[in-house]
User: Fold this.
Amino acid sequence: MSLLLACTKQDALENTGTSYFIKLVGTSGTDELGQIIQLQEGYALVGTTTGSSGYKDVLVGKYDQYGNEIWQNTYGGEWDDEGLGMLETETGDLIICGSSMIKQDTVNAMLMKISAAGQELWTKTYGYETSKQVARAITLSHSGGYAFVGFTTASRSNAENQIENPLGQNDIYFGTTDSEGNLIYEKSRGGSESDIGNDIIQSTTGGYLITGTTGSFSNQSQAGNNMIIIHTNSRGDERAQTTYGSSGNDEGNELYRKGDNFYVVGTKEVNGLENIWLIKFEGNNVISDVWEKEYDDLGQTQGYGIGGHSWDEKITLVGSTFNTAKGTNDACFLQVNGEGELIEEPKVFGADGDEIVRSVVSTTEGGFILAGTSLVEFTQMITIIKTKGNGDIE
Assistant:
C-alpha cells in the first residue's frame, strides 16, 4: 500500500482537527529529525536545522494530538549544535541530547534542559579537547539523572597509562549525570575501527543496554560492520557484549523493551541488499537471542525505529525502502506478531522526493505517530504522520 505525501510546510499551521494526518513541520532551512516522543499531553520532536549561514542549530517543537504546533524554537551557539535524542521529565521539562561545537577543533557531547514552555534552562557539555564527542541517545538513569551513549574520537590514557584509540577512530562513548546534568561517570570502549553507540535503555538489573554498530568486533562468519549489543552496570562497565551480522555492513539502531523481553531493530546487508532486521532477546541476555528476522518484502530497506502497545504482542517497525521507479527512498511501516512474522502487507509513504521515517511512538488512541524527513521542492523538511493501529491514515 502506498500513500502520497501531498502537503507543504504551510499545511502544518492549519488546525484541521483530523484524527490521522501527514504534516510537514520545521523551519525555512534544511531540517533533520532526531527523535519524536509522546508527552503527557501531545508530542515533541528534536532535530537539527541548517540555515542560510551554513551552521546547525538544535530544533525542538511541541505539538498537540492533531499535529498542530504549540511552540517551536531553535537553540545553539556560534558554531554547530545538533539535537539527536529527547526524553520528558516528570515535571514536563524536556532533556535533549546531541552535540555542540565549543571551538573550531572541539565538538562535545551535549545535554540541554528545556522547560515545558520552551525556555532553555541549562546546557552542559562533555568530552575532551581537540576531538569529537556526540550523545546520540538518552535515557533516565537509575539514580534520578540521565544516561547517554554516542561516540568519541578522543585518544586518551587508561589506568595503566596506555594510549587508547591512538588513531582517533570512533569509540562508543557512555556517560551518566545527575538531574542537573553534572557528569558522574564516563566510559569509552572500542577497537582499531569505528564503533558507535546508537541507542540506550535501562536494564532490569540496575544497568543499561546499548546497541550500535562496530567495525572492531565480530564473531565467526561476520565481517564489515556489525550490530553490537552491550549490557553494562550502572557505571558503564561491561557485563556482557556480543555482535550480530553478516559479511556485509550491519547496524543496530534502536532498542525497545516489551514485558520481559527487549528487541533491537536495525539494518542487515546480505549480498549487497539491505533489509530491515529485528532481533528478540529475553530479560537482559544479550549473548543469545530468542529469534532473529529479516524483512525483504519491499526490496532494499533500512530499519530505524521500533514501538508498540502494552496490551498486545505486536511490534511496529519503521524505516525506508528504495523505490526503483523514482530512484529515491519511501518511508515504510511494518507490523509483526510475537514470533516476528509479518501481520499484513507493509505500508509505504512517499511522493517524488526522498522520504524516511526514523522514529515511532504509540498513541493513547491505539495508533502511532511516525516522524522522519521528506524532500519537497529541493528542501528537506520534518514529517509527522499519525496513523491508525495498522498504519492506515484513512
